[in-house]
Structure formats: C-alpha cells, structure tokens
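Is this the right way to post structure tokens for a design question? Let me know if I should format differently. Anyway, here goes:
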C-alpha cells in the first residue's frame, strides 16, 4: 500500500448557503480566532447579502477558535461590521449532523479523498481546490445535502 510519509495538511474554512447550495471556501494557514474572524469578513464580502433586513445566520460548532471569535465579535467594537451582517447559532456539543458544512466534508471525503493516493501534497491541494471551486455556484448536490426537511 502506498502512503505519503509526511505530516502536511490542507486547511479549509467553509461556508454553505443551504437554500441554493453555494459553497464558499477560504484557505487559512491554521485555525485560530483571528483567521476565523477574517474568514467571516471574507464570507460577508463574497456573499453579497445587501438587501435591507437580510442577515447571515452562521452555524458554528464547538471548536475553541469559533467560540472565542464569536465571543469577541459579539462584544468588541472593532467587529461591528460583522455584527451588522451576521447572527451566530452555536450547535450543541457532539452534533456534527446538524452542521451543514459537515455534510460537505463528508461528501468531499467520500468522492475525493477516501482511498486515494497523491504522490505529493500539491496534487491533493489541487484536487480539493478544483472540487470546492466546482461547488461555488448554486448547485443541487450541496442544496440537497445541506437542507433539512421536517418529518
């Protein structure tokens, strides 16, 4: 069995709009509260929700950097631009099935990374970048994966 003897990783921060299936992705070098807040701002800029009274409702899991970013955004004056556009919803612990972005992670693993070998890190990164780019326009795949239908 081939394997790559390295410990490199590709970090992606993702946002899904479940109503139309658009995926927004940024690539921070690592995850911390600063890169999380920066990804919030990038998402707001790319999302273009400019209509009056429209807000972005962002679902956050319990990652420590998400908790700190949320706490700072809700209290500190320099993050008023984010507060004006976003409302945060925190998931209960151990509930990834309720997080729309986890559905994207699951299908990415199944369709692109599970049981695949890349000879180098660049090949993996290129594969993921093109996969995520293909999901950046409204699409049925992500819309149906990330929309919850009542029973």
């Amino acid at each position: 069995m081939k394997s790559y003897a390295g410990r490199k990783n590709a970090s992606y921060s993702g946002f899904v709009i479940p109503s139309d299936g658009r995926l927004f992705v940024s690539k921070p070098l690592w995850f911390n509260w600063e890169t999380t807040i920066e990804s919030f701002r990038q998402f707001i800029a790319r999302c273009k929700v400019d209509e009056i009274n429209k807000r972005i409702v962002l679902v956050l899991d319990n990652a420590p950097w998400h908790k700190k970013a949320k706490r700072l955004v809700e209290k500190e004056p320099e993050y008023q631009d984010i507060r004006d556009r976003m409302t945060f919803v925190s998931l209960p612990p151990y509930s990834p099935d309720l997080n729309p972005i986890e559905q994207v992670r699951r299908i990415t693993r199944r369709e692109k990374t599970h049981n695949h070998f890349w000879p180098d890190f660049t090949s993996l990164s290129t594969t993921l970048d093109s996969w995520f780019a293909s999901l950046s326009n409204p699409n049925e795949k992500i819309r149906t994966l990330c929309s919850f239908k009542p029973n």
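Format looks fine. Someone answered above. Worth noting: The radius of gyration is 16 Å. The first strand starts at residue 13 and ends at 17.
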